[in-house]
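check this:
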Amino acid sequence: MLNVTPKPTDSPHKTLFILNRTLQRSTVLARIEELEAAWIEPLVAGLEDRTPPLAGRADWKDRLGELLALERAGSPAGSYLAEKATRDQFAHVVQEFALDGLTEAQNFFPAIPRLPMRAQMALMRVLIDEFGCGNLQQTHSRLYLDLLAELGLPQELESFLDTTGDETYEFLNVFYWLTQRAGHVEYFLGALAYLEASIPDAFAVQARACARLGLVQGRYYTEHLHIDTFHMREMQTAIKEYEAERGLDATKLWTGAQLVSQLIGGAFDAAVERAREVA
């Protein structure tokens, strides 16, 4: 929970993040739904309007593979961060995603009761890893704190509320909607399956930057390079088990994947662009 009240001058996306991490009284939930109705619902509707129906799970896996192959080619922002960014510029990007690193996977839990038992087990195997298999020093958020400390950045969640861009807030907020208020849980399954499959290639950029800059606390990134290949398989298992129990709307899986790809890509590009302005 955050002991912070949104200010009238806060952007809608920052306000939504604060409210998502506030005690969910009826007035808070009503405001959350109002903000989401103006943002995420039109975004999803637009994606669905542009997405031809998928025939089934095999079609979904083909589309996901094509998207991952396209993204694997890299981007100018990724090349800059890996090869040219200064320590201060890299620290700016780390700071930009601190709210994500410090709350990693916490917003996935509400999806558990929405899934059949065998799909729950696959998702729980992912979550157990995110929280270090019960070892505090191995939790992904602890690894992010270690990186923040090496870069001389704050350790408290509240310290980053005013240094996070709206693009990053959008990525943060989307999983609260996907797990709790999206009308179909397939959106969440597709979104997380995409995220787990894309991170090993995406985080290779940050890992290269850490090595080049001589940072010793880059394990937050290198840990994901291998563990998320396991998570990728587990999410495909969750989808398979969901289909066996309840049937599957593969088009909604693909919509969820496209949604998160768009949001995380936009957040990363914007963060690197702002970092390049750092002297």
Remarks:
- The mean pLDDT is 96.
- The two ends are 35 Å apart (CA to CA).
- The CA atoms of residues 91 and 151 lie 6 Å apart.
